[in-house]
Amino acid sequence: MSRGIYIVANDKVGENAIALLNSIRYYDPEVPVFLIPFNDNYQNVAATLVQKHNVQIFPDLDFLNQFTNKIAEIFDRDFLALPNKMRKLVAWFGPLDEFLYIDTDIIVFEKIANVLDYLSKYGFICCDYHHAGRGLQDIFSPDIREKGIFTEEQLSDVFNSGFWASKKGAISETQMYDLLRECSQHREYFDFSRQVTDQPILNYIVLKAIPQRFNLVKIPGGGAGSWAGSKHFQEKDRALYDGEKRLQYIHWAGIAMKPGAPYQELWEYYRYLNEPKPTQIFADETNNIWQQMSDRIKKLFS
Prior knowledge:
Layout: E1 3-9, H1 14-27, E2 33-37, H2 43-53, E3 56-57, H3 61-74, E4 98-102, E5 106-108, E6 124-126, H4 143-146, H5 152-155, E7 163-167, H6 173-184, H7 198-209, E8 213-215, E9 234-236, E10 239-242, E11 245-246, E12 249-251, H8 264-271, H9 283-300
Parallel strand pairs: 1-2, 1-4, 2-3, 6-8
Antiparallel strand pairs: 4-7, 5-12, 6-7, 9-10, 10-11
Helix pairs in contact: 1-2, 1-8, 6-7
C-alpha cells in the first residue's frame, strides 16, 4: 500500500512551496510527495522541489487536464473564482492509496504523514477548528440548513480545505462528477462571499460521499489550533505551541506572507533552512507592489 502527500503549486507560490517541503523533509526525509501543477507555469518550482526534496510530478497529467476541462464544462464561467484550485480533487485518483493533501501556505512541526494512521478507522481526516470558529462561513449559506440538505451532526464536520487526508477509491470518478454537477445546479447552497473556490465544493462532496469522518482537534481535551491568525501561539524549538499542546502545523489561510505577517520569522527559518538567508526577503515583492501602484497612478493622469 502506498502512502504519501499531495500539494498543488506553481511558480507563483514557489517560495511557500519550498518552505513547506523544507519543513516536511525536516521531520520526514522519506515520505513520497507529489506535486499537482496548478497550471502550466510550474517548471521552476518543480525543478527545485524535485532536486532538493525528491518530489515527484503527478504522473497522469493527461487525466489532470481532462479533469480541469470537465470542471469547465460542469460549472458556469462565473461560478468559481479560481477553477484550477479544484485540481486538488484529483488526489482521489492519483497513485497514492492513502494520502494527505497540504496547501503550500503551511509549515509542519512533526512527521505529518503519521495522521494517515487514522485512515484505518475513517475515510476522511481533517484537523482544524473551522467548525467551532467560523462555522458555516466560507462554506455554506443558510439555505443548506434551512432546506435540510445536511443534518446538524454533518454540519459540525465542516473543515478548512488546506489540510485533509483520505483514501483512493473513497470517492469514485463517476460519483465525483455527479456531485460536482449537483453543486453546479445549486449555487445558493454555498458561501463564496470571500472568493473561496474549492472549500465549499469539497465540503459538500465529503459530507455527501464519505460517512466515516474524523477531525483530529476533536480528540478528548481538544487538539491544538493551526491558524496563523491566532496570536497566542508560543514558539519553542522551531515549533509553535497552543498552551502545552504542540501544533501539528501552522496555516496562513487568508494571510499573505509579507513584512509584519504573524509568525513570519518562523516561516523564514523553514524557508531558508540549509541555505543563506537574504537580507531583504520581501524586497522584490514590495517593489513590485509599488511599481503596480505607480503604473496605476500614471494611467489615471495620462
